[in-house]
Amino acid sequence: MHDAVFYAVNPDRFARDPEPSPHPWDDGALEPWDAPPAHRAYKGGTLRGLAARLDHLLALGVDALYLTPIWPSTTHHRYKPIDHLRVEPLLGGDAAFDALLAAAHARGLRVVLDGVFNHVGLGFPPFLDVLEYGERSPWRRWFRIAGWPLSPFDPSRPANYACWNGNRTMPELAHDHPPVREHVLSVVEHWLRRGVDGWRFDAPAGVGDVAFWRELRRRARAVRADAYLLGECWTDASAWLDGTQWDGATNYPLMGAIHRFAAGARIRPEHLVPGTPPQVPLDAAGFAREVEGLVARHPWPIPLAQLDFLGTHDTARFLTVAGGDRASVELGALLLFTLPGAPCLYAGDEVGMQGGLPPASRGGYPSHERWDLALLDLHRRLAAVRRANAPLRRGTLRPLHAAGDLLVFERVAGGETVIVAVNAGTAAARASVPLPRAAPPCLLEVGAAGARASGGAGAPLEVVVPGRSGVVLGACR
Amino acid sequence: MHDAVFYAVNPDRFARDPEPSPHPWDDGALEPWDAPPAHRAYKGGTLRGLAARLDHLLALGVDALYLTPIWPSTTHHRYKPIDHLRVEPLLGGDAAFDALLAAAHARGLRVVLDGVFNHVGLGFPPFLDVLEYGERSPWRRWFRIAGWPLSPFDPSRPANYACWNGNRTMPELAHDHPPVREHVLSVVEHWLRRGVDGWRFDAPAGVGDVAFWRELRRRARAVRADAYLLGECWTDASAWLDGTQWDGATNYPLMGAIHRFAAGARIRPEHLVPGTPPQVPLDAAGFAREVEGLVARHPWPIPLAQLDFLGTHDTARFLTVAGGDRASVELGALLLFTLPGAPCLYAGDEVGMQGGLPPASRGGYPSHERWDLALLDLHRRLAAVRRANAPLRRGTLRPLHAAGDLLVFERVAGGETVIVAVNAGTAAARASVPLPRAAPPCLLEVGAAGARASGGAGAPLEVVVPGRSGVVLGACR
To answer: Which of A121, A125, A153 sits opposite B74 (nearest CB)?
Structure first.
């Protein structure tokens, strides 16, 4: 998936059915599409709604959809699955999913599912069975039970079962129980057979040990030789990124570094995920060190398969984190599309959606009247430049200049070079890159126009970048 | 279904897998097969186990299986469905059901499912959704909600939703909501398309009005012209038995009458379903009046399609109700197979199982060492006589003699007559039946041997029956 641009969609929030079709539920219960999202409400987006927008995503330059969970779950985010083998009826059910998959594949778009295997929802039938029958339930060993009875609803009594972050509505599966492991593996195989192109594994740290992930990789790849296997990880994913387990991880560390460089002191602490350490601004040198450290952390080419992003459904949107500063998003997007790893847009970021911590960041995708068309166009151009220039997808990374707020780096692959310059400061900045060569053509400008590059005849490359701007220079077509 | 002998099976209690196969649950949690059944425990019977016994049932003379619910339910009786379109994994899941259906049909056995549509289990996903999202749930109109919040677990607060008999674990569906009605109808159609031969509708009084049941009949019959439609009813089912709704009802009134005649004063009140009026013994005349009244209650031939039985999973077993008196069961079985209606054996009754009120009456089907072989043989012979003699299946009913404890009645169809004499008293009894004819051959004796019939040459038919015995006399082969 080195080459892909991902688009992360919570189907409940992206688009409703293009044409209302008869269905058994009550649309009157849905939260108004444009209302601030409540913690507990559906907006009623569907997989048919998503399928009807695929051409819009193609035009944006998207190659792969990452869908947050689509399994029945009785929550709008569906991270509490109650059935691993069906598609949520409110999303349109199995028929709508299969139609989406076919429509995506017909356009060359891949589809990656979100595998929630650490925990289930209270409504997962084996857990309900244990609630009903206690020790007499044949499913009792599927959960980590400390004693009887279980108490999912009365907080004054011990829960007596392991649950995610202490949340009793999310009982954890007992992954050391062989039938549970086999269940997870068989679910992974099932959906790959059904046509999906890969998996993002939610909260995977507890799901299995190294042997489990190797087995999962073996079985997934036996079904689908190029299945993409991505693990959610908020910190250092090295333990899983030895090349025998996942292909990549969610690159939250890079997200933080980009925020600290592109937004710097504009970061609003109140929009950070609780527990996030202070987001101290980074200058160009600090940012370069961070990025080089992250790339060096894993064997090449794993850094190319990491999933990079500026925000997710679990964070505030970057535009909001940056206090509404649009240039931060522009610079962040430039870095996202030019640093190693597969960029992933959190649906709505590309049209300027705002939103604080969840649920606020999970609003309904805006209608086109409210799109920031310039920002959308920037993303479209970034995706196009990335697609047209292999170094941006597969190239090595080397900083060429990092001083003050100006970072210049190159990506090199197959004898081709792309140079990226980002000036996070407010004043224009200049770099003399010790790379004697002719000035490469300007592929794309971000922010204020007027970046200039000159050089040639044995002289170093000189780059001038206006404040809060960036430029992509390259030799590729 | 006039011609069928039914066999009522709770698959959890009939037979385990014939050969253990790998499965993900923990057999160690199962209740020992022969232990007294607890209210909350599985015994681990499966649909594969049942399929492996079909030849035994064929030999017994069974024509149709009535299965208590097979949908996922987190209870051993499964009357709290959480999915109307799947088969419970613990029973072997969809594959095991489809195999059972094929094996049954290959033997000419029909299969009738139990349709639980009045209420669902708490784990029914739309109900869970309403619990999670309250007024924001698109499924809120699927249930009869009086206010918010719902309280399924805290009895100190109002439930705020209608539930079956006040049991908060069984929320009632809102059948006046058109999507709910459509759901029920589509489920009925689904399983008929899948091959089942009919339905027993559980707790149907609240499921729909006359118009609903007519619509259901129309749609069911459009899928399957001979689909059998049976409603559960403990009292007078006349409202549904006008010929445009159900084909028949569960004939609890007949069960009571047979108990009161065949067991009489032997009935143990402690084994009666709570709320049952005192079961005053009936003499022959009283019993005849009861039976004639029940037959006359509905237009002919509806009485032939009623489901008759001596007990169900919701009652104690008749042998236990009768204080262990085996003759009561023999006489009861004789009446069951010779009175109008389709006899239905509650699995185990035919081999002398005992059991008080549920859960006691829901024991594991005994292994053959513990069968009452004579009782089993009696049932086999009764089924054979019924099959061989159309009057027992389709004939009109006319009492010929009812005095003291001796009842003699005839069933007439197609010019053939079968005469049945039952002496519920302990002393031999004699009747002179005002029916001048030759003594018909004795087709079957129940209880003490020595019943005699004589007549002919214009003289009335004389019948002598030993105490606690009965006889079937007939002209058919």
So the answer is: A125
- Note if the bond before B149 is cis, omega within 30 degrees: yes
Instruction: Give the count of Cβ contacts less than 8 A between chain A and B.
Output: 115
Whether A232 is catalytic is: yes
* Token couple for A223: 């079904």
Residue B330 phi, psi dihedral angles, 5° rounding: -60, -50
Check if B99 contacts A (Cβ < 8 Å). no
Q: What class, spelled out in words, does domain B394-474 have in CATH? A: mainly beta
DSSP state of B85: T
Q: CA-to-CA distance for A141 and A72, rounded, in angstroms?
A: 23
Choose, out of A23, A25, A43, A168, the residue to mutate when testing the contact with B (most B CBs < 10 Å): A25
**Distance (Å, rounded) from C-alpha B419 to C-alpha B392?**
9
Distance of alpha carbon A10 from alpha carbon A347, whole angstroms: 8
> Of A177, A228, A229, which Cα lies nearest the Cα of A207?
A177
Please say if A27 is a catalytic residue. no
Answer yes or no: do B136 and A42 touch at CB < 8 A.
Answer: yes
For the segment(s) A395-474, the CATH number from 2.30.30.40, 2.60.40.1180, 3.40.50.720, 3.40.50.920 is 2.60.40.1180
d(Cα B320, Cα B354) in Å, to the nearest integer?
A: 5
In chain B, what residues touch A137 (CB-CB under 8 Å)? 29, 42
Distance between CA A335 and CA A333 in Å, rounded? 5
Give how far the C-alpha of residue B222 lies from the chain's centroid of Cα atoms, to the nearest Å. Answer: 25
**CB-based contact (8 Å) between A183 and chain B?**
yes
Distance CA(B139)–CA(B346), nearest Å, equals 37
Interface test with B, best of A128, A141, A157 (most B CBs within 10 A): A128
Distance from CA of B179 to the nearest CA of A (A): 5
Return the number of other C-beta atoms located less than 10 Å from residue B281's C-beta.
17
Close Cβ partners of B313 (under 8 Å, ≥ 6 residues apart): B8, B10, B68, B77, B346, B358, B361, B362
Has the ipTM of the complex gone over 0.85?
Answer: yes
Angle separating helix axes B210-223 and B178-194, nearest 10 degrees: 30
Kindly give the pairing relationship between strand A228-231 and strand A248-249: parallel
- Give residue for tokens 């992206």: A14
Q: How far apart are CA B12 and CA B89, in angstroms?
A: 11
CATH class of B6-391: alpha beta
Does residue B153 contact residue B163 with C-beta atoms inside 8 Å?
no
Quick one: fold of A6-392?
TIM Barrel (3.20.20)
CA distances to A56, A140, B76, B364 from A133, in Å: 50, 9, 9, 18
**pLDDT (tens digit per residue) in B174-192:** 999 999 999 999 999 999 9
Residue-wise pLDDT tens for chain A (477 aa)? 778 999 999 999 999 999 988 999 999 999 999 999 999 999 999 999 999 999 999 999 999 999 999 999 999 999 999 999 999 999 999 999 999 999 999 999 999 999 999 999 999 999 999 999 999 999 999 999 999 999 999 999 999 999 999 999 999 999 999 999 999 999 999 999 999 999 999 999 999 999 999 999 999 999 999 999 999 999 999 999 999 999 999 999 999 999 999 999 999 999 999 999 999 999 999 999 999 999 999 999 999 999 999 999 999 999 999 999 999 999 999 999 999 999 999 999 999 999 999 999 999 999 999 999 999 999 999 999 999 999 999 999 999 999 999 999 999 999 899 999 999 999 999 999 887 777 788 999 999 888 888 887 778 889 999 999 999 998 643
Distance CA A170, CA A159 (A): 11
Q: Tell whether A122 is within 8 A of chain B (Cβ).
A: yes
- Which residue ranges make up each domain of chain B? 6-391, 394-474
